[in-house]
Design brief:
Chain lengths: 703, 66
């Protein structure tokens, strides 16, 4: 009825209202859950007679997230971080009970190391590190003048934090939970559909380099995102946890298939540029595979529909390849064989990928699964800068505290600890520090109004809620606004911290103002530190080093031990690439260069790994087995520091290894084909290696 | 089991190790349920998990404080 009325146009305001409120529902649901969890935690903390119910409330505020999987993951790492931090705080107190200089120095170092550690981990593991630093400070600083109270303080803080974690986890998981699992499932389906769509779309065999680059961006993003999601969902859903290994394997297969696919198309593109007859033959060989991905009936993105077709196409490849090969002139056969081997590898990988997808959707996995770890590429220098910056912030505050014997120095240090860790991971630390500071000041103002005008008249827990709720609500609501990053978190932490709910409540305007001032100083200091030692995340310097690290993955492919190397290589190079892409302007020259390098690294690295496994399996003649390792090392050296001389050397070494192979007419061994692919990739004049090629080109380019 | 136990001269309520043990038990139950896909038959799986935990922990606690 309302729909009909709306189309009539009479109560237009209703549809307008609905449009304005779209999305508000989930925002307010989150606000409601946060507030419920916060007050429940506060009530329990008071009932259990914990010292500072405010700590419990802050914990709830920090842990809450719209998706329950996120909350549980965050809680898990927060619990670990809290335990580690409090144990370290106690140990520190035991070591230096009388020497504040040594104590503060060690504490600063610990906090700094934790902040650095948080840069080396993704997801909420990084958050656990921040917490380990923060808890050591929160346990020891308030009792620094009474070392004997440190143990009780540690027990209290840990109890308060754990209570907050349990309540937040329960509320978000039980009360109208928003499942991260659905996001994961959608992501996985989209990944599959996108990949299949792209494979289908390249039926005529050619893909423009620009399209290939865009597709690569999408593939990498979905691989990294799925891994991130999986790491959180395992806390939410036991079923996903039971299938965690299969999902990792699926993602590994996906990455491997996308690399093979790209390598194949780069090869075809190169052959076409040389107008070799092998290109047309390879496209003809590819056509049935493309056709298999386009079923006439049923849902085209459904893996159960695609699987039998793919099986059929895969079985048909060798016979068709033999037929096509016969028609080719002798000199094109090596090129064709190389492409056919790549195609066969790609089809096999796609087949396994599709089969796994089918089995995962059915919920029963029968395919044997390898252990795959999605490894990350980390930037040690970036972490070191964070350690240094955090240490300087903490040391400066300590020195100021000792020098001025300021009674509220501990409070400033505490807040600085929290925020140094949180800002370090932000892409624009100065801006987000500014936002958070603004939110924090607002929060303090809100807490002032609540504490001295609203709370004194209230009596009992219900009145406490009534008095503090209206201004508290602002915090979670602000944090659902994407346009104001950091303001909501700053407001919520500032408000709850300054409100400092206690049972019985203490009212002291002098303490409030002093405390507020010291905390603003603490937040400010941790932000100001970024002006002196700028954030590394997303800087041009980091981009440069990460690009170098990306190239170094070829060295990894050439030298690391072989077992599990494919997965290791595919995941690290993608993770690195994703990190750099996040901070590169799309479409800029930087982005272009980066993409070119990424594609080149994927192709050469994978070829090297395949070549090395061929050699390890004992393929190829004795002469080849002697010459190939030198070629592998030469290519690795080229990627380590590309220049013209090294390119020449690599090209010569690969050529030398190829010459060691038996002549064209004999059945080509896989090792030889991989060498040929490597040489063809090295001589690709559209790849990132093009600037390092000597202009006095090879005769093969002349045609 | 005693109501309070001393770990490194610190008195800890006996319920604490029991609580951790129950978490472990629940984790095992969870793993089995997840592998068999039993949670699909429940309307609100996380509520079931919480309720299961309450049952296990309540039973163990009653046995301890008996």
């Amino acid at each position: 009825m309302t729909a009909a009325a709306a189309t009539d146009g009479s109560p237009r305001w209703q549809s307008q209202l609905r449009a304005a409120l779209a999305g508000e529902g989930s925002a307010w649901l989150f606000v409601g859950k946060s507030v419920l969890a916060a007050y429940l935690a506060a009530w329990l903390a008071m009932w259990l007679q914990l010292e500072q119910p405010a700590t419990t409330m802050i914990t709830v505020g920090i842990v809450m997230h719209p998706h329950s999987g996120m909350v549980l993951a965050k809680s898990f790492y927060r619990a670990l971080g809290t335990l580690a931090g409090s144990v370290f705080g106690l140990a520190l107190m035991g070591l230096f009970p009388q020497e504040r200089e040594l104590f503060l120095l060690s504490l600063s170092l610990w906090v700094a190391l934790c902040a650095g550690g948080s840069m080396l981990y993704r997801n909420f593991m990084s958050y656990g590190f921040v917490l380990a630093g923060y808890t050591a400070a929160i346990v020891t600083l308030p009792v620094i003048n009474h070392p004997l109270g440190a143990f009780d303080s540690a027990v209290m803080r840990v109890s308060e934090v754990m209570l907050g974690i349990v309540v937040a986890g329960l509320v978000s998981d039980v009360v109208f939970p928003e499942r991260l699992r659905t996001v994961l499932r959608q992501g996985a389906r989209q990944q599959f559909a996108q990949f299949v769509e792209f494979v289908r779309g390249s039926m005529n065999g050619t893909i423009a380099r620009g399209d290939m680059e865009q597709a690569h961006l999408r593939f990498v993003r979905s691989a990294v995102q799925l891994e991130n999601l999986r790491a959180s969902v395992i806390f939410e859903d036991p079923e996903v946890r039971a299938r965690s290994r299969q999902m990792r394997y699926l993602n590994g297969r996906y990455m491997a298939a996308s690399t093979s696919f790209q390598s194949l198309h780069h090869l075809i593109n190169r052959l076409q540029r040389r107008s070799s007859e092998a290109a047309a033959a390879l496209i003809a060989l590819y056509r049935p595979v493309g056709a298999a991905m386009t079923p006439a009936t049923g849902n085209v993105d459904e893996p159960t529909v695609l699987l039998p077709l793919l099986e059929e196409a895969s079985a048909g490849v060798p016979a068709q390849a033999a037929a096509l090969r016969e028609a080719l002139p002798l000199e094109a056969r090596l090129d064709f064989d190389t492409g056919a081997a790549l195609l066969q590898r790609f089809v096999d990988e796609l087949h396994v990928f599709t089969q796994l997808e089918v089995e995962l959707r059915e919920g029963r996995v029968r395919t044997p699964v390898e252990r795959v770890h999605f490894q990350r590429g980390n930037d040690l220098v970036g972490a070191a800068v964070t350690v240094l910056r955090t240490f300087l912030t903490m040391a400066t505050l300590s020195a100021f505290w000792i020098g001025s014997s300021w009674p509220y120095g501990a409070s400033a240090m505490l807040i600085a600890t929290i925020f140094s860790g949180l800002f370090a991971a932000a892409p624009h630390p100065l801006q987000s520090a500014g936002n958070t500071l603004a939110g924090y000041v607002l929060g303090i103002a809100g807490a002032f109004v609540t504490t001295f005008w609203l709370l004194p008249g209230s009596d009992g827990f219900v009145m406490l809620i009534a008095a503090s709720l209206p201004l508290l609500l602002l915090g979670p609501y602000l944090s659902t606004r994407a346009s104001l990053p950091g303001v909501g978190a700053g407001y919520a932490i500032g408000f709850v911290y300054m409100l400092g709910l206690k049972n019985p409540m203490t009212y002291s305007p002098v303490r409030f103002l002093n405390d507020g001032l010291s905390q603003i100083l603490g937040v400010g200091m941790s932000g100001v530190a970024f002006a002196f030692l700028p954030g590394v995340t997303g800087s041009a310097w980091q981009r440069l080093r990460q690009t170098r690290q990306l190239r170094a993955q070829v060295v990894l492919a050439a030298r690391a031990p072989l077992p599990g190397l494919t997965w290791r290589f595919e995941s690290i190079s993608r993770d690195l690439f994703q990190q750099v892409v996040e901070h590169t302007q799309p479409g800029s020259a930087d982005a272009h260069e980066l993409l070119a390098w990424a594609l080149s690294v994927h192709e050469c690295g994978r070829a090297l790994i395949e070549l090395r496994s061929d050699l390890a399996a004992g393929h190829g003649s004795a002469a080849l087995r002697e010459a190939a390792p030198a070629a592998v090392q030469a290519v690795a050296r080229l990627y380590q520091a590309p220049d013209v001389a090294r390119w020449r050397e690599a090209d010569r070494a690969v050529q030398h290894a190829l010459d060691a192979c038996p002549s064209v007419e004999q059945a080509s061994s896989l090792a030889r084909l991989h060498l040929h692919q490597l040489r063809s990739a090295l001589r690709d004049d559209e790849s990132a290696l093009a600037p390092y090629m000597p202009n006095t080109g090879e005769p093969s380019h002349a045609a | 089991m005693p109501h309070e136990i001393a770990i490194g001269d610190v008195l800890v309520p006996g319920l604490l190790p029991l609580f951790l043990g129950c978490l472990l038990v629940l984790w095992l139950i969870d793993a089995v349920f997840g592998r068999l896909g039993l949670y699909r038959y429940f309307w609100h799986p996380s509520l079931v998990r919480v309720a299961l935990f309450f049952c296990v922990f309540g039973l163990a606690g009653l046995l301890l404080l008996r």
